[in-house]
User: Fold this.
Amino acid sequence: MLRFDSVTKSFGANTAVEAASFTVDKPMMIGIIGRSGAGKSTLLRMLNRLTDATSGEIEFDGTNVTALRGAAKRTWQSQCAMIFQQFNLVPRLDVVSNVLHGTLNRRSTFSTMFNLYPDEDIHRAIDILERLGIAEHAPKRAEALSGGQQQRVAIARALMQDPRIILADEPIASLDPMNAQVVMQSLRDIHEQDGRMVIANLHTLDTARRYCDRVIGMRAGKIVFDGTPFELTTDTAREIYGADASFSEATTSTEIETITAAPIAAQ
Ligand SMILES: Nc1ncnc2c1ncn2[C@@H]1O[C@H](COP(=O)(O)OP(=O)(O)O)[C@@H](O)[C@H]1O
Ligand SMILES: [Mg+2]
Assistant:
């Protein structure tokens, strides 16, 4: 259903993603792991056309995504909802209005200007918030919520688009471990219950192992691993994170996590 065929993105002389190829046959929960600068965000951004590939082709259910223009491109972008590390909500706006923003692409400028939402959409937004366990916060300003709650609002806004794919770019990088688990479990539930494909950029191995069916490892723009979490050995982790991440054979994934978390925190 999803196919990357030798997809490359260059920024001047710098190749952010180099000849990335992979195929996804059915909706899965996929974790993309790698160090900061490995090309994870660029890969996701090319999929939802926030950035254009320099060469190669991305295909979804027979559609050449890389060739979409105008309205067709916008439709694709709404089917391919993205959530971000920093949530990207409108802080002063209430939670339910933030979620309703997920319907913007199919509403007229007039109704948008006057904040006129059909009752049906409002009910759906509340249902989605309920599903994510945050309906009680619906009338509050987004900025009044904790980080974990705000990320769930962002997920609700994505679901409001009824997307085929949810792309999550480091969705838990700003969260404490407990909130991180709640957010990852929400994404997992959405995948299992709705059958949506979820692709999440993650910087920790453990998270990818725990929640994903498949892991794609990137290093310096290249895909260096593509397999199940069980196939991800310490050797493979070393390949993904680099030889300079000095850990011994006995190193556990938690220790690797500590090593690799450092450059992320410095961002
Ligand atoms: N808009 C841009 N302009 C120039 N270089 C970029 C841009 N976006 C990303 N890059 C470069 O592409 C490489 C991959 O970046 P990115 O995809 O953000 O990696 P990751 O998400 O794994 O940290 C990095 O070297 C980064 O500096
Ligand atoms: Mg990134």
In short: The pocket of adenosine-5'-diphosphate (ligand 1) is lined by residues 11, 14, 16, 34, 36-42 (CB under 6 Å). Residues 87-162 form one domain.
